[in-house]
Prior knowledge:
The protein is an alpha/beta fold. It is built from 10 helices and 7 strands. Strand 4, helix 4 (102-115) and strand 5 form a beta-alpha-beta unit.
Amino acid sequence: MADVAPATPVADLAGARHPNLPQHLYPVNLVLTGQRCLVVGGGEVAARKVSGLLEAGARVVVVAPEAVAAIATEPRLRWQQRPYQRGEVASYRLGIAATGVTPVDDQVYADAEAAGVLVNSADDPARCRFILPAVVRRGDVQLTVSTNGRSPALATWLRRRLVDLVDDDLLALLDLLAATRADVRSAFGTSEVDGWQEALDGGLLDLVGDGRVEEARRRLRSRVGLDGVGRDRVLGTADGLDGEDAA
């Protein structure tokens, strides 16, 4: 019988981290609408990166001698059918290296670092200034899952388990919360008041799911202190309030 190597203890696996990976990442959602973004590479991996950028409203340029159909036939992007030229990523807001050719991807990363451009290198987290999480997106609800770049497979698996959480009832609840938030900000000059979490823990989603939206609205407004607040104050016309966004 052939020898079988013993399994690695879970305790030892906890240290199986790339030495250049950070212990913690700072999660952000980038506003890329109208921003120039460069994707270097024309394969399936590059096409997935392009899709996400286009969905975010970015102005995407792809540089690659050849490209899959998803890139070559996409009218919303500009495909420059040639190799990457040293330093060109410097003129973009964000860059992605996805050629799968190490010297090329390394050059894109080095150029981006020198120019202070945010860069992602596909399947090479040690050469990334940002990591792309797995995403569940429906309407204005977006859930993201990251493993600090250690296992995209696990992030994708977790994303699949979250998909069913974002349903029509949750989107309706979001509309209710957003409208109430605007009223709270008008009434108090800020939306940072007590009661939001207590209201959500108090069955708002169940009420919305049962079609009892007005009951959910009354319960939410009571929790965040809008009971008894006159309409003039909610509209931001009470003394001391000018209706400005208290961002």
